[in-house]
Amino acid sequence: EQLRRRMVHGNIYPAQQVPAALTHFFTTHNLTILRELALRFVADETEQVLMQQAEEMASGPVETGEHILVGVAAASDSGHLLRRAARIAARTKGDLHVVHVIAGDAGRPTDPGALQVLQTLTVALGGEWSTMRGDDVASTLVSFARAHNITQLVVGSDRERKWGLGRGGTIKAILKQAGLAGLDVHIIAPPAGARLGSLAEGAGVDGS
Question: What is the mean pLDDT of residues 18-32?
Fold first, then answer.
């Protein structure tokens, strides 16, 4: 509003150009967006300068930022889940860990071809792939998170009662254990029209 008032007073543009400028570009809406972009830019630049100074004072790299963990499986919507986790990592300037949990009692064989596709996608997105064995999905993922200083956990949603938020559900167990570990949890819905599998697909569980 101060900028617009200065324009009206002729402090920026000649008087004949002011009406068009205020109407077409220098609207309150546009200026608000530009202000937000400028604040984000300055914040990012300031963070980089401070981190550089901190590293120089510490004579080495300084641990900072977020660490994102996503559980994936050989499922049709795991690529969507992985990409969402990668976007979260990019927004927070964090690193990306991708874990495939092999559960002996899951009752479904692992699809090597589908897993290879996910591993390739992980590398393309700048992530680090790991494979773990564990019958308890929640414990396996949270144990990995603790060992790697993970700050945010990404899992797929599911509507089946045995994997959902009901009594004994895997997602419920993940939320409980992640909360005790101080982890933020993102539950990602499958893409529109996608087949909803069990959490064995959404949270990264396959049989072996």
Answer: 88
